[in-house]
Amino acid sequence: MALLLTVLLPGLGHFYVGKKNLGIKYFCILVGLPLAIIFFVAHPLTRIPFVIGYGFLAIGLFLIGLSWFVLFDSYKSAKSFNRHRKLKTHSSLARKFLLVIFIILLMFVFNPGSLVIRHTLQAFKIPTITMKPTLIEGDRVLVNKVIYKTSEPQRGDIIVFKYPNDPQLAFIKRLAGMPGENLEIKNGQLVINGKTIQSFTPNGGYFNTGDYGQEGLVVKIPQDKYFVLGDNTLNSRDSRYWGFVPKENLIGKAYKIYFPFDRSGPIE
C-alpha cells in the first residue's frame, strides 16, 4: 500500500506509515523543486545560462535517483510498520481500498503535470529551417496553449497549429493575415488592405510563389481563418501554397526558446 501511494505522490506512502515529517520532506524535494524549475524555465523573460542549464540536468538526474530511493524506503518502512501493528478488519481494508481508488482518480484529474502539458504549456522541437533565422532546426520552444482561449491572435505572433491538410501534423509559422483582410505580396512586402506592413518582413522580402502568393494576386482571407508565412520565405511551405489556417486549428503561441541554453530567451 505504501509503495503504491508513493508512486501516486512522493511522500504519501510515508504519511501512510506514520512518518509524516519525512513524507513532507520528500514531497517538497520531489514535487516542489521540479515545479520551481519548470516555472523558472517557462517564464518568458528567463534566459538560461549554459552552466545553470546543465545544472538543471544534474538536478534532474539527482531527483530520478532520489525517487527510486524513496520508493525503496517506503517499501522498507511499510514492512516495519506491518510488523508492529495488528491485522486490520475487512471493513478497514475496504475503506483503504476505496481511499486508494479515490486518490488515483484525484491524481488522474488534478495531476499538475498532466494539466500543464494538456491544457497550458507544451514543448515542441523545431524540425526544419522554415522559420530561420528566428528559429533554427533543433530549437526547443515552449508554446502557450491558453492564450488564444482568452485573447485574439495578433499579427506577427509565431503560432503552432494543426496543418489543415493533415491535422495530425503540427506546423509553426508567423501569423501574417487576419480574418476578413485583403492580403497581397508585392515587391517582397506584405500588403494588407492596401497598406504595406514592414514590422516583420524578412531580409530579402517575401517571394511570390504558390497558388495564394502569385504576383498581383490579392487574397481575401475568410472569416475565422488566418494567413501564415515562414520567416525563411525561400524554404517555407506556408499559406502561399496551401491556403488558410482555420481558427479551430490553432494550438497556441510559441513564446520562448528554452534549449539550446545559449539560444534561450523570448521569441520575437
Task: Please tell me about this protein's structure.
The chain is of the alpha+beta class. It folds into two domains: 2-110, no CATH class; 119-266, Umud Fragment, subunit A. It has eight helices and twelve strands. It has helices at 2-8, 12-16, 20-42, 50-83, 90-110, 112-120, 147-150, 239-242, and strands at 121-125, 140-144, 158-162, 170-177, 182-186, 189-192, 195-197, 219-220, 225-229, 245-246, 250-259, 265-266. Strands 1, 2, 3, 4, 9, 10, 11 and 12 form an eight-stranded antiparallel sheet that branches. It has a four-stranded antiparallel sheet with strand order 7-6-5-8, with no helix packed on it. The chain is elongated, with a radius of gyration of 26 Å.
Short précis:
The chain is α+β, with helices and mostly antiparallel strands and 268 residues long. The protein has helices at residues 2-8, 12-16, 20-42, 50-83, 90-110, 112-120, 147-150, 239-242; strands spanning 121-125, 140-144, 158-162, 170-177, 182-186, 189-192, 195-197, 219-220, 225-229, 245-246, 250-259, 265-266. α1 (2-8) packs antiparallel against α4 and α3 runs antiparallel to α4.
